[in-house]
Design goal:
Chain B: InterPro entries: AAA+_ATPase (IPR003593), ABC_transporter-like_ATP-bd (IPR003439), ABC_transporter-like_CS (IPR017871), Oligopep_ABC_C (IPR013563), P-loop_NTPase (IPR027417). The complex is a heterodimer. Chain A is α/β, with parallel strands linked by helices. Chain A has 14 helices and 12 strands. The chains are: A alpha/beta, B alpha/beta.
Chain lengths: 317, 332
C-alpha cells in the first residue's frame, strides 16, 4: 500500500472574544497522521475535540495555522486551483437534507458536478457516468430522476450524496458523521457501502465519528482525539480492543451497549469544553481517574506501545 | 404494576389541504399502550414512524393540522382515570408540568436566547406556582438544580454559553421542576456525542429513582433502550409492532423489524457483516396494504399483503406479526 494523505503537525488556533482579547484556543494541536491507499481511517472523539476542524482543513475550507497536508507527496498549497484538489478529495456531510437545496432536483447536482469538472462532453456520456456511480451505491438515475430532496428517505439521500462525491473518481472521501442522521434500520447499509467502495474501487475513507461501534466495525486504523490532540492511534482492534489511554476507555464505557445485562452503573465526571482546552498539562487530567501531580503540570509526549501511539504520562515511563 | 397512562386504539392523523387535494398522514394509526408507574419506558422507532406525534397526543397537545380521529388517552391521577383528550383546557393546563411534562428534541428552542436561564426558570415557576414569593421560588429552583447535581450558578448564564449536553440537562431540570409523575422525553440525546449522552442518561435515571415516577424515553438508539429502559415498545409506520420487557425483547425479538434493529447493531470486538433491513420506511401518507412492514420483510407471505396484524400477546411479550415467533431473519 502506498501513502495517500499525510498530515503533519496540523494546527489551528482560534482567537476567542474581541480582537483585543489575548485568549487563544488551540482547537487542533500538532496533529499528525497518514492515510494509506484503500484504507478506512477513523478520527474519533466527542464534540469539540477538533475532529471536524481537522476535516475542514483537509478539505481546504479552513486555512491551517501551521503544519502541512500532503496528497501523494504534494502539499495542499501546491494544488494551484481548488478543482484539482477536489478531483481527488471529496466530502460527505452529516445531514443529507442540508447538503442538497430543497428547491433543486437532486439529479441537477450530478450534472453540475459533471460539467464543473468537465467529466463528459455529451449528455449521453454524462448520464452513463452518473448511472455508473449511482449503481455503485445501489440507486439508479431512473429512481432519482425528477425528484426533490424531500421525496427521499435520509438513507437514500445520503447514498445519493456519496454517489455524487464519487463522480470525479476521488481517491479519498472525507465523511463527517455520515450516519448520525440516517434512520436506524438503514444505518448499516451506509457503513457497509464505505467498506464496499473501499474494496471495489480502492477509495480511502477518512471516517469522522463519535460512534466507536461503527468505527470498530468498518475501519482499519483509528485515531482518538481529545481537545485538539490525538491521544491514541493505531489498528482499530488494538486501540478499541485493548485501550491504553484513560480517555479511550472513558469513550468505550460511555457507549450504550445493546445488552440489557449491562446497565449504566459507574458514574463519570463531566467538564466544560473551554475549561479543558485552556488547561496546562494533560487536557484530560481534570477527568482522568488515574491522573497524578505531573499530569496537571506537563503535557505528555507521544510514545509508542506495541505499535500504538499513546499520549499519556502513564505510558511514558 | 399499576398503569400511569393508557392509550386505547388511539388514532391521530395530520390532515393537509394541498393543491392536489386532501392528504392524510396516518402518524398514529391505532396505538394501544399501557405505561406502568415507577419505570423508564422506552419507545423505539426511526424518524417518521410517528413517535413524536404519539407523544403529542399523549400530552393532549393536538393542534391543527393534527386531528384526533379515535381512541382515548387515560391518565391515572390520584387513583382515578381521566380522559385526557376530553378534559377542559383549563384542567389540562393544570396537569401540564405538575402531572405530565415534556422534554423536546432540541434544547436550544426551549430557552429564550436573549434572557438568562434564571428568567426562564422564574417565568416558568411564576406561571405554575401561586402564592409564593419570588425569593422562595428562586430558592426552589436552586435546590432543584443542586439535587440533580448541577451548579445553581448556571442560572446566571445565557443558553448559548452552555455546551449542548449541559443545555439538555438544564432543559431536563426545568421539565422536572414541579416533580411530575410522567416525563415524556423526545430523543433527548440525539444531537449529543457519547459522553454528553451518558451524562443526560445518568441524570434521567437519577430523577426516575428519586421521584419514583415514569419516564417515557423516545429514541431510535437501541443501545440506549438496552441500558436504561425496563419495558419498551417498538413503533413502525404509526403502529406498535412489539412490546414487552426490554430484557425479553433483546434476547428474543419477535417482530422481523425488531430483529433487524437489534441484530444489525455493531458491537466492539465483532467485525462480522451486519445487514440493514432492505428498502426504507413507507410514507405515512401512502401506507401499503396489509402489514406496513411487508414490503421490506423477507418472511412476508400472502396474508401479510392483505391483512393488518393486530398486536397480540405471545407469552409476556406482544407482537403484531402473523408469524408470532422468533423467526431470526438475520443471523448474528
Amino acid at each position: 500500500m502506498s501513502l495517500l494523505l499525510e498530515v503533519q503537525n496540523l494546527t489551528k488556533v482560534f482567537a476567542l472574544g474581541s480582537i483585543f482579547s489575548r485568549l487563544r484556543l488551540t482547537a487542533v494541536d500538532r496533529v499528525s497522521f497518514t492515510i494509506e491507499e484503500g484504507e478506512i481511517f477513523t478520527l474519533a472523539g466527542e464534540s469539540g475535540c477538533g475532529k471536524t476542524t481537522t476535516a475542514r482543513m483537509i478539505l481546504g475550507f479552513e486555512p491551517p495555522t501551521g503544519g502541512t497536508i500532503r496528497y501523494r507527496g504534494k502539499a495542499l498549497e501546491e494544488f494551484t486551483d481548488r478543482k484539482s484538489w477536489f478531483r481527488e478529495v471529496q466530502a460527505v456531510f452529516q445531514n443529507p437534507f442540508e447538503t442538497f437545496n430543497p428547491l433543486r432536483k437532486v439529479e441537477s447536482y450530478f450534472f453540475e458536478t459533471v460539467s464543473n469538472f468537465r467529466l463528459a462532453t455529451q449528455r449521453g456520456e454524462a448520464e452513463r457516468l452518473i448511472e455508473e456511480k449511482l449503481q455503485a451505491v445501489g440507486l439508479s438515475l431512473e429512481e432519482i430522476g425528477g425528484k426533490y430532496p424531500s421525496e427521499f428517505s435520509g438513507g437514500q439521500l445520503q447514498r445519493a450524496s456519496i454517489a455524487r462525491a464519487l463522480l470525479t473518481n476521488p481517491s479519498l472521501l472525507v465523511a463527517d458523521e455520515p450516519v448520525s442522521m440516517v434512520d436506524a434500520s438503514l444505518r448499516m447499509s451506509i457503513v457497509n457501502l464505505f467498506r464496499k467502495l473501499c474494496d471495489a474501487f480502492a477509495v480511502s475513507v477518512l471516517y469522522i465519528t463519535h460512534d466507536l461501534a461503527t468505527a470498530y466495525y468498518v475501519s482499519d486504523r483509528i485515531a482518538v482525539m481529545f481537545r485538539g490532540n490525538i491521544v491514541e492511534m493505531g489498528k482499530v482492534e488494538e486501540v478499541l480492543g485493548n485501550p491504553r489511554h484513560p480517555y479511550t476507555r472513558l469513550l468505550l464505557e460511555s457507549i450504550p451497549e445493546p445488552d440489557p445485562a449491562k446497565r449504566l452503573e459507574e458514574r463519570i465526571v463531566f467538564l466544560e469544553e473551554r475549561e479543558e482546552y485552556l488547561r496546562a498539562g494533560c487536557k484530560f487530567a481534570g477527568r482522568c481517574p488515574e491522573a497524578w501531580e505531573l499530569c496537571g503540570r506537563e503535557a505528555p509526549q507521544e510514545v509508542e506501545v506495541d505499535g500504538v501511539l499513546v499520549r499519556c504520562h502513564k505510558w511514558a515511563k | 404494576m399499576l398503569p400511569v397512562i393508557r392509550a386505547e386504539d388511539l388514532q391521530a392523523f395530520y390532515v393537509l389541504e394541498t393543491l392536489r387535494g386532501k392528504k392524510v398522514v396516518r402518524a398514529v394509526n391505532g396505538v394501544s399502550l399501557v405505561i406502568p408507574e415507577n419505570t423508564v419506558y422506552g419507545l423505539a422507532g426511526e424518524s417518521g414512524c410517528g413517535k413524536t406525534t404519539l407523544l403529542k397526543v399523549l400530552l393532549g397537545n393536538l393542534e391543527p393540522p393534527l386531528r384526533h380521529f379515535g381512541g382515548r388517552v387515560l391518565y391515572r391521577v390520584d387513583g382515578e382515570y381521566l380522559d385526557a383528550l376530553a378534559l377542559p383546557e383549563g384542567k389540562r393546563q393544570k396537569l401540564r408540568w405538575t402531572y405530565i411534562s415534556y422534554i423536546p428534541q432540541g434544547s436550544m428552542s426551549v430557552f429564550n436566547p436573549v434572557a438568562k436561564l434564571r428568567t426562564t426558570f422564574m417565568d416558568f415557576l411564576e406561571s405554575h406556582v401561586s402564592g409564593k414569593m419570588r425569593q422562595e421560588l428562586l430558592r426552589h429552583a436552586e435546590e432543584h438544580l443542586e439535587r440533580l447535581g448541577l451548579s445553581p450558578r448556571i442560572l446566571e448564564a445565557y443558553p448559548h454559553q452552555l455546551s449542548g449536553g449541559m443545555r439538555q440537562r438544564v432543559a431536563i431540570a426545568l421539565a422536572t421542576l414541579l416533580n411530575p409523575r410522567i416525563i415524556l422525553a423526545d430523543e433527548p440525546t440525539t444531537a449529543l456525542d457519547v459522553v454528553a449522552q451518558r451524562a443526560v442518561l445518568q441524570l434521567l435515571s437519577d430523577i426516575q429513582r428519586k421521584l419514583r415516577n415514569t419516564i417515557v424515553l423516545v429514541t431510535h438508539d437501541m443501545g440506549i433502550h438496552a441500558t436504561v429502559t425496563t419495558r419498551m415498545a417498538i413503533m413502525y409506520a404509526g403502529r406498535i409492532v412489539e412490546e414487552g420487557w426490554t430484557q425479553d425483547i433483546f434476547t428474543a425479538p419477535l417482530h422481523p423489524y425488531t430483529q433487524y434493529l437489534i441484530r444489525s447493531l455493531p458491537r466492539i470486538g465483532d467485525k462480522r457483516l451486519r445487514e440493514s433491513a432492505p428498502g426504507s420506511p413507507p410514507s405515512l401518507a401512502q401506507l401499503p396494504p396489509g402489514c406496513p412492514f411487508h414490503p421490506r420483510c423477507p418472511l412476508a407471505f400472502e396474508r401479510c399483503r392483505e391483512e393488518v396484524p393486530e398486536l397480540e400477546e405471545v407469552g409476556e411479550q406482544k407482537v403484531a406479526c402473523f408469524l408470532r415467533r422468533a423467526s431470526h431473519v438475520v443471523t448474528s
